[in-house]
Design goal:
The chain has 201 residues and is of the alpha/beta class. The chain has helices at 6-10, 45-55, 58-63, 78-84, 98-102, 110-117, 120-131, 173-179, 196-199; strands at 13-16, 22-24, 34-38, 67-72, 90-93, 147-151, 158-163. Helix 2 (45-55) crosses helix 7 (120-131). The longest helix has 12 residues, at 120-131.
Length: 201
């Protein structure tokens, strides 16, 4: 896990998807611990499924005074994402992608994104998303990767810093709960079995 400079990244501005107000990232952890999920794109089918998975923790997080926040790198797909109800926490946009850069979330090249997007992990989650009725699109920045950070109240420490290696990488729900010292009462979605019918589409 790379060292996170909370003072530096905390000063980056995010735009609220609800009010349009700009706030510093560090304001999200001043009063309570926070789980911040950085999506690759709001229109990404895999990201939408991941958002719905992480959202299973929201009632437990809220009951324990932990905030759940989703951040996207641009506004493309935001309205559809909100209307789809994929995420149960507050939503923000990192218009300048400074948080993504400072947290080490890599950008693919036009050549490297294709094999990454066609990898088995991505195909497995895409088929699971389709089975759950979650669709996506290819609008916006296709090259940005994402991840997740959990910060203790007041920015005392980084409890978990996860960087996607593949677009299909996701922190297991139990790891999020464990990092916060909580016992999870939710069950993660079953990953689909990959066969020729499912994974060649």
């Amino acid at each position: 896990m790379a060292k996170v400079d909370l003072d530096k990244v905390g000063k980056n501005l995010l735009k609220s998807a609800d009010s349009g107000e700009k706030v510093e990232l560090q304001s999200l952890w001043q009063a309570q611990p926070v789980v911040v999920f950085f999506l690759r794109r709001f229109g990404c089918q895999v990201c939408r499924w991941m958002a719905s998975e992480i959202s299973k923790l929201e009632p437990d997080l809220r009951a324990n005074g932990v905030s759940l926040v989703g951040v996207g790198p641009e506004e493309f797909g935001l309205q559809e994402f909100k209307e789809g109800g994929f995420f149960k926490g507050s939503i923000y946009v990192d218009e300048e992608k400074k948080c993504y850069k400072d947290l080490g979330f890599k950008r693919y090249t036009a050549l490297s994104v294709v094999p990454a997007a066609l990898g088995k992990k991505v195909r497995d989650i895409a088929s699971k998303a389709s089975a759950a009725g979650i669709q996506g699109n290819f609008s916006g920045d296709l090259l940005q990767s994402g991840g997740l950070i959990i910060v203790a109240k007041g920015g005392e420490s980084v409890l978990l810093h996860f960087i996607q290696d593949s677009p299909g990488d996701l922190v297991p729900l139990e790891d999020i709960s464990k990092a916060l010292g909580l016992s999870a009462t939710v069950k993660a979605g079953e990953k689909p079995v990959c066969n020729d019918d499912v994974c060649t589409r």
